[in-house]
């Protein structure tokens, strides 16, 4: 009987009870798991055993059948006669068949051996090549230039498939800072249809970094030809054309991208509006008012909430004597995006420039969308021009409530000076202006540069359609 006690190493042994299962690390039964694995290995063994015994049974049955039917076999060949029992003859026939089968098998091995060896060797090489390729991309993702370079060389040697290894070689060269090797690898990728688009994108980026605009344009155009439905070639081409002041060419690229649905309709429309505004400005500067009006109208139709489009179109309409249409454009834009530029053009678009008339017009602007600091400030400006000091002060106080920036205090100082002359009140407003938040300005979202006017291209960083107006309100 086994009893609980000390084992040979001083450990405590336990009595094993029949039917008890020891829990494994994952909560299962180790005994059950071993049994399942044993059963899995035992099934093929049992099948082989059955086939073996079946063969033995067939041989025994054949031997018994021959033993019950005795006889002799005579073989006569040339002058030789050989006689033997039937059983011996059957054994010799089986032996001859086995020898023939073995010779045939050996011949197949000798004939196919070199090819099979080559295939096996190639399979091992490809497996090693793909392993090196995967390791290289992991290293490249981690920024490890040394391992990425070594893996790329190993993959090139083992795979000998440039379409697979060149991208890794180019990326490894970029990580090393070797621009020449990187460009060489990308140029080699241009000859492979599978890698040409990726190479075009990389070479375009490199060309833009070194300021080679013609090369960048060429890569963008060719990439768009390769994949008309890809979004990045259309965006890149539009930005490059816009950067060179080719507004219509940039717009054509966006139109093509929109037609093939490479860009969402709203995104393409927003970008096109920016380009058409600049084209309208260019037409005005070159004495083509009809073309300017057409481009400005197209920009406003694409993006009615864009302030530069509305102000430009309203000015052109007012200049053409279409004051009512200009006001409608401004009203539509103001309801969506109130802005000081819109408020300024609101007065310019009036056919009657009498100061008192303009005060009435700005009262209408205040009523159009109440609670807008820009409208109250524009009305205060009109009241100052009309020398209505009380009205001006009232609306400047409203501006202080809504958006207390520098402009409100400076104009309050002007009103106090006009009413009472220089004094402590004027100085108090100027002191408040110095500590108040700065007035908002157009700002590039790409580089952070502030601009006094909106432009489609930031003259500091070259970003296209990146200049926006910040929202300002009382903190």
From TrEMBL:
Gene Ontology CC entries for this record: membrane
Coiled-coil residues: none
Signal peptide segment: none
Region (Disordered): 1-41
Superkingdom of the source species: Bacteria
UniProt main location, coarse: membrane
Keywords for the protein's UniProt record, in alphabetical order: Membrane, Transmembrane, Transmembrane helix
Pfam families referenced in this protein's UniProt entry, alphabetically: HemY_N (PF07219), TPR_19 (PF14559)
Keyword Chloroplast applies: no
Key word Membrane present: yes
Domain called HemY N-terminal: residue spans: 71-177
Localisation: Membrane
Residue ranges crossing the lipid bilayer per the database entry: 50-67, 87-107
Protein name stated in the entry: Heme biosynthesis protein HemY
